[in-house]
Amino acid sequence: MPSVESSSAESHRPGVVRDANNLIGLDYRAEAAKFAPRPRPIIDIHTHILGSQAPRVYLDVAAAYGVGMTYSQTPLPGVDEVRDAMGDRVGFIACPNWSSPDRSRAFREGYLADMEVFRSRHGARMMKIWNAPRLRDFFPGQEGADLVTIDGAWRVKQLEAARDLGMAVMVHVADPDTWFATRYAEAAKYGAKRDHYIGLEKMLDRFGMPWLAAHMGGWPEDLDFLAGLLTRHPNLHLDCSATRWIVREISKHPREVFTAFMERWRGRILFGSDIVTADDHVRPEKKTPGHPKSDQASSPSSAFDLYASRYWALRTMLESDYDGPSPIADTDLMMVRPGEHDEWSSPRLRGFCLSPGVLDDLYRGAAERFWGTLT
Ligand SMILES: [Zn+2]
Fold this sequence. Notes:
alpha/beta, TIM Barrel, 13 strands, disordered N terminus
């Protein structure tokens, strides 16, 4: 990742390294102290905590930003070391072992076996089904017919297992509109965005446990569509994870539209960041070839900035009246309009000053009630 010593940004403090997670030279530790203290610790319902050292940096960030409890999608082989690092400040969400050499099995019967271990040994009360359109790249053509749609044969088996284990379901159903306009432009392969919700709605009706649709249900660009989904399916909840995507798209909505949406759906929207940690973030050499995000940081201090930037951006958008550039570079801008943007471009970030009651539900109350329905 390119990293430059900035001397141009006016707000930049001398000695603070500016990089793609800190375009405006913020001191993220000092910034954390500027937020109003939370009356109750925040629950982050959506992270991917991996490694033995990176979780310790993450814990430092979480403490600074008021996050007291984190739910992580850590593949089974990595759970013990994350538990050792975080103790009772982490809970686990069952997910497939995506780095297994036998991916076909890991996403099918292997996942059924892993779900049972997650439940019995690690207390997991939610499982994840990741049905991003690009699952079609991993399981092309007929090879993936039983897996790539949310109501495919293997998904049904996994949901039956979740029901038997008393688990809720987290689902990733779609990706940004920017991706459908570019990398998913081949509609015959990836489908239209709306198509991905047909199977989801069938499964929401068929399986009545609580569901959590990640990344504002995959459609932060269209709040009316989300309101329809939430109306039709009382068992559906959303999380606000995927910081870059959420900040870029939610900031575009008129203030009264987004604040009304959050008021109306209080208790159905949970706070999540989608922070990904890895030990490659805390060392210069990369030992996990193929990890898609291993080059995002290379020292404990740059890892601190990487993780903190997500909490800073989300809390600033939700709580403050900030109106300015996001500190996080967003290459989706360049993907859609290459002539106007480069790899250092970032979108507008707008603060919505949500009310204290809405914030308390979003940061904690909704998650408490979500888990409470399972006991
Ligand atoms: Zn995620």
